[in-house]
Amino acid sequence: MSSHRRCRTIGAKDGDDQGPNPTGARPMRELIEARLSRRGLLKGVAAGALAGGLFGRVARGKDDPSSLRFAEIVHGIDGTHHVAPGHAAEVLIRWGDALAKDAPAFDPRAQSAAAQAKQFGYNCDFTAYMPLPAGSGNSEHGLLCVNHEYVSTALMFPGEGDAEPAGRQQAEIQMAAHGHSVVEIRKDGGTWRIVADGPYNRRITANGTRMRIAGPAAGHERLRTRADRSGREVIGTLSNCAGGSTPWGTVLIAEENFSDYFGNVPKDAPQAEAYRRYGISSDCEYTWWRYQDRFDVTKEPNEPNRFGWVVELDPYDPRSIPVKRTALGRFKHEGAQCIVNGDGRVVIYSGDDENFEYIYKFVTARGHDPRLRAANRDLLDDGTLYVARFFEDGRLRWLPLVFGHGPLTPENGFHDQAEVLIEARRAADLLGATPMDRPEDIEPNPVNGRVYAMLTKNKKRRPEQVDAANPRPENRAGHIIEIVPPGGRGPDADHAATDARWGIFLIAGDPASGTTLYGAGTGANGWFACPDNAAIDGKGRLWITTDQGGGAARTGTCDGVWATDVDGDGRATPRFFFRAPIGAEICGPSFTPDGRTLFLSIQHPGDVDGSSFDAPATRWPDFIEGMPPRPSVVAVTRLDGGRIGG
Ligand code: FEO
Ligand code: CA
Ligand code: CA
Ligand code: CA
Predict the structure, then answer these.
(1) Does the CB atom of residue 357 touch ligand 1 within 6 A?
(2) What is the separation of C-alpha 53 from the centre of its chain, rounded to a whole number of angstroms?
(3) pTM recorded for the entire structure
């Protein structure tokens, strides 16, 4: 999401209560040298870059070290999108496109909640391509599952210049524009098209979809409300940012900035400290609480506890009830990326995307059954949630969030596992987790067995707060950390282990700043700022999307997609592949199984200061006078039909 909208919630924890700092405070260069000079982990290009004095500049080697076979595009800012030569980037589905036979034609000047609930939602984020039939590797016919994170009122409604909806009708349209879409898609003659009346098509919304609450916190008194005395049922999902998909063919929808939706918070509430820790305050982004009591914290003090979870959805059953899996903990989940461990257990990595928040992983208690899909139905209800503590010497320890373990006891206000999960942030504080620079996608790489953590930025980090894992004060451009589980490469990596090693993979930003770290051979347009989401291609290469949050004027380029090798001579040498239209961030990169299509969400196009429905910064993608910009998913293919990246 753009920080343009988020300025009030980001940094809720700034300046106080930042937890222990196991890596200490030392100058950035010294910290990185300490990490890079250690034997083993970071030998190779990054270490070579340091030895060659590559801080602060970018060099292009004589020979191209990258395995990526495309010519990179150039930095820049304009109103449309750009892709590397030899590729097509076609708009597949836009905000307002019909997902049902009886959906009304999109008319943003006469929108209704009923129409929106049958149309593609706003601000698309995570995408997952799920092949049809289920379990196949079909790369030309499948379901595209897409999150809709939030709405931009000023760009959505004519005559609005404000973030707040003008009345109940607009608020209900906004609720219907949130959530998730499942849409059948098919590749015909090399071009992807949606099947507008496909039988699997479905909208999940903030206000119209009943969900089940499962796992250790289900039924807990802090999840009970007047509307749901069982604490096991909830309406809707909010702030659906990134996500993941499971090996058994379900989609994980991560609830991120749920605090934005709750208002009228009483100052002396019994849960005041818990609200504060999650940024829940009367200074909320939306004013839905005026129209629905459940968003009014004075009236429903437990409703906020029913959001901030990971939701599991079976897209292959259009009548399935989505399930909030409480075992994975409650925080501002950016995503929920799965990998199957060698022993069959499933490990899900997740970042808590706020300044000074943490990196988590969940390990299932049982292994998944690859033969019997139904056997995995409740696999995510039983397992262990861990949070990461980074040590300066390159060790990483995963600390279990288990009731009764260490400080997670009644003396500290935890009376059962449900409370540990509901207040996962406070539990992680007490365990001594390492506060990070906005952890977004945490992407396990099945090819080399390592894990890549996108740290978007954290300009609130003061010089005395830097540590080896977050080495840059006032970090405006972010960095990427590489976690190395024990056991070996690829399938030998033990993602369930409680220890790992880690290193800095890349420090982003303009090399002219003198504080960056890229591999030797990074080109003039290879540098980027603010890594956010990521995907791994079939060769294990990392595809990174960025979210500068209004920073384009400073960097001179719109957000985009950069790809890099993670091993070999091309390690950490990003290459610029795709550029967004002005105002947009790019989210949700996902590949088809054959690697020949890359789906990208273009979120909040035109969202720059002063831009509005009536006078937008761009009218992408329609470019029709009177039509506002429309968040859309783009399908990128190669003109010769080959694999993206070669
Ligand atoms: Fe929804 Fe962390 O961006
Ligand atoms: Ca973002
Ligand atoms: Ca994001
Ligand atoms: Ca991802």
Answers:
(1) no
(2) 33
(3) 0.93
